[in-house]
Amino acid sequence: MTSETPATIALVGAGVRGRLGYGDYCLRHPDRVQAVAVAEPDTERRERFAREHAIPVSRRFAGWAELLASDRLAEAVIVATPDQVHAEPAIRALELGYDVLLEKPIAGTPEELGRLLAAAHASEGRLVVAHPLRHAPLFEAIARLVGGGRLGRVMTIDHVENVGYLHFAHSYVRGNWRRTDLASPMILAKACHDLDLIAWLVGSPWRRVASFGSLAHFRRENAPPGAPDRCIDGCPVQSTCPFDSVAFYLRPTTPQAWVGAVTPERTEESIVRALRTGPYGRCVYRSDNDVADHQVTIIDFTDGTTASLTVSAFTAEVTRTIRVMGTHGELRGDLLAGELEIRRFTPGAPGPAEIERISVAGDFHGGGDDRLMDAFVTRLQEGRRGARTSDLDAALEASVVGHVLAFAAEESRLTGAVLRK
Ligand SMILES: NC(=O)c1ccc[n+]([C@@H]2O[C@H](COP(=O)([O-])OP(=O)(O)OC[C@H]3O[C@@H](n4cnc5c(N)ncnc54)[C@H](O)[C@@H]3O)[C@@H](O)[C@H]2O)c1
Questions:
Q1: Is 161 in the pocket of ligand 1 (CB under 6 A)?
Q2: CA-45 nearest atom, ligand 1
Q3: What is this structure's pTM?
């Protein structure tokens, strides 16, 4: 196989992320990468993905274990299964020598993370963590500015993961990430990216972490009087409740990635049926959720840099906002807006002339999803030419720091202790 032919991937988990993210990328870039095998227990999802990518029957599997029972079928495996089905398929794929792009959280416990890293180090294949934000133009630009010393020495980072009230209700009250036992703690599921970004920008090991937060609002005792179990069943506050599922899922502008989780068909009839019977029609105060709806984490790094991460359901926009405060300047960024503002400290008060504004591509992940796949496919092609970079272990260790911090933060939140490395 030459470097000109498309790279090949086997997809494990053809759900929202697998099909609409990675699968869609393959369809848009057929000259660079092709999906040649799929593992998915849901027959409808598996067959639809196989049809879209012209995958023969012999390469369609009911689960990751079946796909990974045979010899290698592709150059790489992309694991986009539910949170608790990540490490095992990745370890098996690494044992077979596949390159692996693994969705976060890449492991559910520190022990599992250790086994995964050992498998990666023992494998000929590479393990790449799906951290799209590292590839978002906003954070790439911030890393360049920080690394280039534009702010002097970084002293403090103040990062906010604005989950958005509707996004939170969808994923963390009604949806797949609502319970720790079904998925993972919110700080791991939602904010391992943010903790990764913070650690990446600081570039020094952390030494202490503390975290506070709880599930305070989306609880039974906060349900409005008379609210039924489902919004669609004549809720007396439906017209004013910001979390009303009917208005949200029937709205034509609600992203397909969200409606696709509710029902495979985007028709009014199908959505209404799902809201009457499925998890996404539930009153946000009467679900079976237990993950925190707001959490603040503070981190002390060995070089003296301090950082805070706020993750909150209670924001109007779905965005990440960051302030980086250095000895010679301050920077503010907004991922959704694609805005970056740098103020260098000057003698006297800074006027408008000293403020530099940079516009970058902005959306939920700031364009990072496609750029992550671009980078992964490029690495596969480099591998064919034997030109792989040799810093895999260092890169991998760095890309799991966010997970280690998330484990520590959750332990701190639950125990009240300050965790030391
Ligand atoms: N990196 C990011 O920014 C980002 C963004 C969104 C989601 N994610 C992660 O991606 C993962 C998938 O999320 P999603 O929204 O697509 O969920 P999803 O439930 O829509 O898709 C997961 C799919 O995996 C399938 N599956 C379950 N067990 C399987 C098995 N044994 N073998 C093969 N497939 C199996 C399910 O049937 C389902 O279709 C989650 O872990 C999520 O946290 C990451």
A1: no
A2: 39
A3: 0.93
